[in-house]
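Feature request, filed as a ticket because there's no other form

It would be nice if the structure record came with a short human-readable summary line next to the C-alpha cells. Right now we just get the raw output. Example of a typical job, pasted below so the devs can see what we mean:
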Amino acid sequence: MITFTFVKKREGWSDEDFFQRWAKHTQDFDLVDHPYITKNRLLQIAGSTPYVGIAENHWPDAESLAATSRFYQETERGRAHWADLESFMDIAGSPTVVVGREVEVGPEGIVQLFPPVVSEG
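Raw output as currently delivered:
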C-alpha cells in the first residue's frame, strides 16, 4: 500500500529549513515509531505551489496505516510524535491520498504493479 502526502509548512519556515527539519523528524520519529514502513521518501517541490513537499510512504497493508492513526491518538509517544510534526508542518493543510492502482509504462508495454495481477496457469 502506498500513500502520498502533499505537505504544507507552517508560517515562518524557509523551504530549506523546513526540508531539513522534516528529514530529521522522519529519522528521529518515523523510523523509530513506524519500522514497518518500507519506504519513507521525502520530495521537496520546486517553484510556487501551495505545497513544499511530497511524502511517499510504503505500508505493508491497510491495517498498519490504521494502527498508525490509533498510535497518534492513544499513546503518549504518539501524541509527542504528532506534536513534533505540528511544530513545523501544517498537518490540516497537508492531504494524504492512497494509491489505488499503479502501472509501469515502457517500451515493452504496460505492466500493472498494483494491485498485483495473478496469472492463471
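Something like this underneath would help us a lot:
The chain has a mean pLDDT of 94.
Strands lie at 2-7, 39-44, 53-58, 96-98, 102-106, 109-114.
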